[in-house]
Amino acid sequence: MINPSAVQILRTIETTLVDVVEPAVGSTTARSALATIGHLLRHVALRIEGEGQVLADDIARLETLLADVRAYLEGAGDSTQAAAVAAGLDRAAMPVDGYPTLAMMGARAAGLRQTLQDALVHLQAQRAARAADAGYAAARSAIRTYLGEQILAEATLIDPAFADHGPRR
Amino acid sequence: MTMRFTADELAPILAHHLGGAVTVEKVEGFPRGSSRETRFVTCRVEDGPLRELVLRSDFPAGSTDPNPLDLEYFVYARLNDADLPTARALFWEDDPARTDRPFYAREKIAGDWNIPHFSNPDPAYDDLRIAIAKEHISMLARVHAVDWRALGLGERLAIPVDEADAARSALRHARGQFLALATEPIPLLLEAIEWMSDHAPPAGRLCLCKGTNGYGEEVFRDHRLVGLSDWEEVSIGDPAADFAFMQGFLIDIVRDGQVIWGLQAALDFYESLTGLCIAVETVRYYQLLRSLRLAIMSHNSAAVLRRPDAHIRQGWTAAEVQHLAKRILGSAMGLVTPVDPARFAELNVSVDME
Question: How many CA atoms lie within 13 A of B106 on its CB side?
Answer without folding.
Answer: 26
